[in-house]
Amino acid sequence: MKGLEKTIVILAFLALLSQAIRHAYMLWFESRESVLDKYEKPRKGEIEAAKSLDELLQRYEPIRKQVDQLREERAKAGSTTDEGTRGKTPPLEDTQIEPFKSEHELRQAINEWEEKANEIHELRFFWIVGLVFLILGMVIYRKLNRWLGLTLIIAGLSEFIYWTSPSFFGGTHEFDRLLWNKLLLTLLSLVLLLLVMWFNRVFADQEPPKA
Prior knowledge:
The chain is mainly α.
């Protein structure tokens, strides 16, 4: 059993440590600038500067009104054309021209913000679930049955590793907040793993005393 425990904690430690390094790199060292940014600003800069979902919505609403108005105008123009020319009417939307391009970019940014907010909620919830598994596993390992306790410990560590795994894409403040949450919870998971190693004497020569 000692060999299995050592293998589990070593693999968990390597996974969590590598994830912590990845999160730190993305927060402080990864370059998010591109030589093409000057062609996409100021819209991209406005999106990245937004500090809340309400700010994005305030920028989105007037542009959405322009888009809706253009759609109505084009729809009316299309309805007045005869059957022979109706097929030549320009498409109602083209995300490469304004204001459709800005509307599309802002809508994507809002969707991303909401997705990252949901990820933060899931991350915290399932990390707490993993913590419950870990605590129950430690108690059962020491007091009742070592195999059952080890199973729950593995379940808890698995929750930690899975839900703190790296996120690779994002361009909003909510994405940075997700990275901060993952980094902090990854570091806390590492501390808890070290406590498990110490309490269960995983690398000790002798088996842990039974209660």
